User: Fold this.
Amino acid sequence: MTLKVLIVGAGVSGLTTLKECLAAGFEAIIFEAQGHIGGQWQYTDPDPVTGEVHSSIYQGTIFNSCRDTSSFSDFPMDPASYSVYTGHKQFVQYLHEYATFFNLMSHIKLGTRVMKCVQLEGGKWEITSSAEEGAKTGTYDALFACTGHNTTPFIPQFQGLADFKGQFIHSHVYRTPGAFEGKKVAVIGVGSSAVDIASELAPQAKALHVITRKGGWIIPRFVFGKPVEAFDSRFAATVLPSAITKWAQTKLCNLFIGDLPPKLKPKHGILKANPTVRSDFLEKIHVGLITPHRAGIEKFAEKGLLLTNGMELDVDVIIACTGYLIEFPYLPEDSYRAKKSLFIDSPNSVNLYELVTPPNYQNLFIIGILELPGPLPPMAEIQARWSVGILAKKFNLPTREQMSKSIEQFQQHLAKNYVHSDRHTVTIEPFQYADRLLRPLHANPSFSALFRKIFTSNPFRALSVLNAVYMSIPSSGQFRLLGEGADQEIAVASILRIAKGARELSKEEKEALRKMREGASVP
Ligand SMILES: NC(=O)C1=CN([C@@H]2O[C@H](COP(=O)(O)OP(=O)(O)OC[C@H]3O[C@@H](n4cnc5c(N)ncnc54)[C@H](OP(=O)(O)O)[C@@H]3O)[C@@H](O)[C@H]2O)C=CC1
Assistant:
């Protein structure tokens, strides 16, 4: 019997989930509330009447990971069309190309908002949705929630917020720098939103303050002319002892960016917090355009802020870049939220086995709620393949008790290895996580499996692939080389082209894509 599957959201996670579901022969459909695909990555202007915005993307958003690592594993981004780091417009264009190439659009119902999902006895999901033609209810065998975790702004309960007479916004609604020209601005936080927004506003603002409690490592996009990820590798992440890798990464960072400004220099090590990527932020501090403050917020006052170090800031605008709440309003809350974490007490702690599926509900998969030093799209794709593998009975989930134990161990791991914060409740180490999820599909690119290929296929090519997978920039084709769902032709061609640094798709890639389009693309 064909499984009937509903996917909520047509962003990065929803599109790749749809593609995997169709490839497995499921009857799958996406319900997307907006009138377009792209999810968060589709920039939207504020509503002219209410001022509300859908996406958290601002005009200046540039992908934090580079083109060669960020594509889905079987659909490379052509360097002839895409820049080394893509802006949001280019990335949405890529998502459109992906959806067209894999014939996904006819399986997407735009303008359809999922309102409520209830699990029925026996495990099916009853879904209530609303669209222009009215509300509808349907029943599905499995449900994928792919609406991301950067939608609901997290605004801490700042004391005195109502007393502030200036403008207060969350980064979620920030779009362009123009409106802040000549203003005195305070930005709270030092995550990607804070660092991007501060860097955009600083040249035009009268004063630009950045307030951070813990400081942070700010990693440049380019190091010695290459994307910073070119200095990462599967070898460094999975073969070298982690102490050596961390030492080398810290040395490289220090060498390249110099000593961090004291107000920014964190006590924690380089990968103990989610990384923030931006090349010009430190420069803007060094030339006096941005003033960092190492303090918390004591309270808001009529004319600005009182910081916990006793400093008073007189400002016109305060932008809280304080992150987002993990929230799925259409799901039962106990299907994803941890009741109370023993290790990190945060509303963002989740009760999901492998950060995907809850032990207490069946056939529910949440794709794409991850934080990682690297790109989300290939990881969301792996989560989708893993979930589809479960539904297709390629392997079984462990027992409920085992899943709960594993969630507890993951929480312990977070508490031990990351700064305790609402930001670090879904943080993963990408290679280890990817391999764990791909292992039951026999698709993890292990050294031994790739090494064996030297004796069973063209040895020179197999050696080049092994070398590229372990020593080169971590491109996502490595996840399509083996096992269930493998597509060797496109995977090998794109891995080798990316390792070479060629400036356009290779002939082999074009040929592999042509064959996929003509024969193998999903219906
Ligand atoms: N270009 C891109 O690709 C972009 C990607 N993103 C992504 O979006 C996600 C969200 O990023 P972002 O919006 O920056 O949020 P983050 O959760 O990453 O950062 C929140 C920041 O706010 C601070 N903060 C939270 N609460 C308080 C408080 N009460 N007082 C003072 N400071 C506080 C945190 O400090 P502390 O550490 O002390 O808790 C942290 O510095 C991330 O995954 C990020 O990578 C965002 C923007 C651009």
In short: The CA atoms of residues 105 and 437 lie 28 Å apart. The chain is about 30% helix and 15% strand. The two ends are 18 Å apart (CA to CA).
